[in-house]
User: Fold these one by one.
Assistant:
Number 1:
Amino acid sequence: MDWDAFFTVHRDLPREGPGLADDVAWAGRLSAVPGDGLVCDAGCGPGGDLAALRQLVPKGRVDGFETVAHFVEAATVRFAGDPSVRIIKASMETLAGSYDLIWSAGAVYFLGVTKALNVWRRALTETGAVAFSHPCLFTDKPSRAALAFWEGEPGSIGTESTTRAEIASAGWRVLASRPLTDEAWSAYYDPMLARCDQLEAGEVSDAVASAIAAARMEAASWRTVSHETGYMLYVVRPC
Ligand SMILES: C[S@@+](CC[C@H](N)C(=O)[O-])C[C@H]1O[C@@H](n2cnc3c(N)ncnc32)[C@H](O)[C@@H]1O
């Protein structure tokens, strides 16, 4: 993977994975976040969910944790006028504090469910919750194309049952789960494809052309396997 080329495509995008403001609102309602609460966006990317998280805590604060420098910069610029949003360039493994909600869209698989929940338990209030979207196979007999869709991503991809088993064996319970909608995926892929068009309108190196082709292929593949795989959103609390 040529990361420079990858991040040339993955730049100036509103978000870096599927999701909608309505997903954040749903998780916020289930976890009963107080209006003056403290919320964390673990792996916030360019900050696509920060506005919706901010709405959960109008009198509180939102901390975004992210390790990729230009995502940190994009999120920081986006919320420069809001002192209640802090973007921290640090690993979500280092979360400390008393969060009412740790939200993590499409980032838990970088740590693994068990590790993330073990680390984050100590960063929650007594009534705190974690909400995370996570790759999921919607069938026990996925096609090769569905498995190939996740190739190269960290960790192994399971079904909702296997993820629920992991959550339970880490000592957490699921308050609710629901799959991300097609609209949530479009919120990620439509701007990414527009970015590909924009780059192709100018001169691009071979490496960037390959990264554009890979991005287009990913979006096209998702369309063919979306009935078999996608993201499941879980809201969980320690038992
Ligand atoms: C699929 S993207 C999702 C980004 C964002 N949540 C969104 O939905 O737009 C996953 C993000 O997790 C970040 N990430 C991966 N490992 C991380 C870590 N250990 N600490 C903080 N962020 C991390 C990546 O840099 C990336 O921005």
Number 2:
Amino acid sequence: MARLPFARSQVTQVFGPRDFPQDPFHKGIDFGSGVSVGLAVPVASAGIVIGSGQSAAINFWKEVDHGGGWTTRYHMLGSSAGPGIGDRVSEGQTIGFIGPKFGVSTGVHLHFEVHNKNQSRPGYGSAVDPLTNINNIPSPGVPSPEEEISMIRIQSPGRGSALIGPGFFRPLRNAEEIEQSTPVILRHVNGNDRQFDIWRALAVGG
Ligand SMILES: [Zn+2]
């Protein structure tokens, strides 16, 4: 399940039209309450970094692809520190750090956007309201950092592949999911179907 980088109560500017000639269509939300320069920004969901840069309007920025046409963007970062283009990120991983008040902005904040490439509206393009769409963003089959501690991947001829950890069992449904799991596992086990079933029972108590 995807999550907002910060709490809803920290939002100081919502999505939508606003009285601000430089940028009348606010394509994201601003988290400007309870944030400070250098604060780590957690990524909304697992994915791959597909964009990173700097501009005179939004300072340093990054974009993460979550699959299914969904991406999230993080503007007003203080530098390019953190994951770069092509890096896989897990939900909650630090994507960057909040930068100082920049350009025409009224204060230190994170500007956060959610895009769905299958949607387009005048003034907003593919940007949609993060507050009402955050739960629509897919969570690709990469465990969260808390789950990564003791993950093992088991594979057997009749059962396929799965990630197993304490109280955790997740089948890996295709080659992409298997490949995505590689960076987060302690080790890979090739077993037979009986071993697979025993491991599954040990993991989930059934
Ligand atoms: Zn903004």
Number 3:
Amino acid sequence: MPSERNNTTPMELATLQHCRLCPRSCKVDRLHGETGFCGAGACATVALASRHYWEEPCISGTKGSGTVFFSRCNLRCAFCQNNQISWEGTGKDLSFEELAQVFIRQQASGVHNINLVSPTPYIPLIAAALRQAKKKGLAIPVVYNSNAFESIGGLRLLEGLVDIFLPDLKYVQDDQALRYSGVRGYFQAATSAVLEMHHQVGTLTLNKQGLAQRGLIIRHLVLPGQVGAARQILQWIQANLPLETWVSIMGQFVPLWQSSRYPEINRRLYPSEYNAVLDFFETTSLKNGYCQDLSSAIEDYVPMFDLSGLE
Ligand code: SF4
């Protein structure tokens, strides 16, 4: 009798053999030792599974969000807060079966949802793990928390498995995406991805406790000196998605990692900049938004990536 692994995963895992999971389209054979831009291999490299209280209120609730932090990334953001895992790849390699167990343990701990942080390079493994975990009783919402640099083909592997998409729509100008995150064609790819995400899950729905159940929340991290870009992001959302779309305007930028190489962003946001973006939001027809207290822009919120929660 075939094993469950052989029964449930060939379609998903086969995509690792010619990896085009994101727009980098490296076409490397990750099942046989090759690695592409992100450095991810045949297993899911995970740095931490924890309970997180600093997401949007509808995600964190009162019991916290069950974050699973994946290592390696398809961007190279100079200001990355998680460079220890995104650039350096710190983490533990897990099979999809082991990843499914992490999800089950997170649910058993009482968190409101499973929050997949920087999941893009591992979509096939995550899809297989979610299918297995759901068979074993995983019932809380699954949040896909990414940088939005996604391929449509990759996202379609998640159809029916992810409940809430939480993309950070980072840049509107390609020269800035190239300068600060080393990526070409970001805006075209990311906006196409956001439309696919909306197609899959629709506008956000909340339960009676105000917790997210299904839908799209678009984040935008405002960069120093980039009020105009933030306005353009909001204008794009207004023009291309329902006015009920939830938008989370983040002001938590901290000039970490290699930010000092770019003097124009090597500082925190001025309150006047952040307020200008919030004021602009009020002039749009968008109906639902989150904002942050600028005091949340401190390094203390960066997690310790010590492999906790992976045993
Ligand atoms: S997921 Fe990684 S290997 Fe695959 S296309 Fe993207 S950057 Fe390349």
Number 4:
Amino acid sequence: MEAVASENIVKGLVEIVGQKYVRADDVIRWTYAIEDFAGTFFHPLSDKYGPPDIVVKPHSAEEVSKILKLANTHKIPIIARGGGSDMTGAATPLKKKGGIILDMTDMNRVLDFQEGLNAVRVQPGIRWGELHHELAKKGVTAGLQGPHGFLGATLGGGIGGNCFSINSPKYGWLNENILNLQVVLPNGDIIETGSLANTKVKDWYYRYCNGPDLVGIFLGAAGSFGVITEFTLRTYPIPEYSATLAYSFPDTDSEIKFVFKLEWYGYVTDLWGIAFFTLPDSLKRILAPLVGERDLAIFATEAYDKDIFKAQKKAIDKMAKEFNGIAIPVEGICRALGISIINQTEWMGGGIFGKVMGPNGSDTCSIAHLPQWQRVVGSALEIMKENEDALSGSIPLIGADHFFLFAQLLGRGGVANTFAMTPADFMDPENLKKAQDLYQAIVESYMDTGVTALYRIGKESQFLTKRFKPEYISFMKAIKKALDPNNIMNPGVHGLGLEEEE
Ligand SMILES: Cc1cc2nc3c(=O)[nH]c(=O)nc-3n(C[C@H](O)[C@H](O)[C@H](O)COP(=O)(O)OP(=O)(O)OC[C@H]3O[C@@H](n4cnc5c(N)ncnc54)[C@H](O)[C@@H]3O)c2cc1C
């Protein structure tokens, strides 16, 4: 087979996008060899990630189409990439395969916004910060603010990785807000889904029409079925009244019941629930003087009308009391946890990651059935207890007393998010290996409970995709084979296209 970065292929790419947008030099290649997060090194496949052979920046669907045709002719892997922050190896090539990274970040424009449509048409390389800026000028909001702690991530990457976002408890996951996609298929065909599949329709975006929902198969597909080149996203009015509130609860069970009801009634915009018993000692020491050993719910609420807002806050207070909740001043708690309230509803949990995890920890992307969430936590805590001394060498590095769980009771659709941190010393291979093994054991234990699933799988979890029911995996493989017979689209994600590796 011809080398990926051969003169012939580089020349072909230069003809498509121009000299300036094709790079095959080592500095650039290695910049794209890792994702924007140290935690990626914990994944079982992390030593199998490597640099691409070439990085290309396209500027239109037509350019992407020509690139995919070229890649198909030469059977070269194609990995679409936005901010590269997925943390699951999803935006990184496999070392053995290399390939072309399609850096989508120059396709970052707002294309169409029409009042009355409640929708905005954008290119996938747009970053959350840019989108907010553009929408604010039109007097609307996307509702969702972007993934926690990383506003540089792109919307296209969020679609590829099933992003849940700040404000997901109210507005849903990113992919619940997608009304249409333009996708370049691996053979180079450019398709529109939903209402735009009709040749006459130009600027009306509706998802559920013209036959089956073909938007769905590209959502969360991590670029394995095609490259998204445009899409339409719902927009919302900007709520005029908003507040961040905090309550403490005597136990996790009461807190879970409160969170569940709060979301069910539609009062919560975003929420962090913290279960005291899961925290590392360092965080317990920070929180105990403020709330004792009680669990904590910090959340945002908003409304469009002053009177409704007042009534809503009253209803929330009544609801909290039903579960023995006590209102606490929110500013002190947020300061202690490193959460900055940007403008009441746009607040970030990024600080808490930095404080307790530092650069040397990893988390899992698991969601669990909220009412049964304690089972998931219980199983992970058991493993952690068994391994209490295993990683003690790495502890000074992160300022946490030992590896720990941090729980975010997301609420949306009754799911909770759990972060199991397994800190490690990257300079000590033995210590790193122990952390990786522990990470895998914890994730496996989550799955064993039967009430949890992962929402960003990427290339991270071959051991998890093996748990898919055989009929499901065959169905996925059949779609992959039909769309991408040469297996060029992001081989390795979701356990697809790894046959030769195995
Ligand atoms: C500190 C921190 C906090 C985070 N918090 C969250 C969180 O709260 N919720 C959450 O969901 N994630 C979170 N993440 C993970 C990550 O930021 C998000 O998943 C984000 O949406 C990824 O966007 P990206 O542009 O970086 O995607 P990338 O990593 O570039 O890509 C993600 C996937 O999408 C594919 N892709 C990219 N562009 C396209 C395209 N145009 N067409 C087809 N496929 C494409 C890629 O191939 C890859 O498989 C966090 C990460 C960090 C570092």
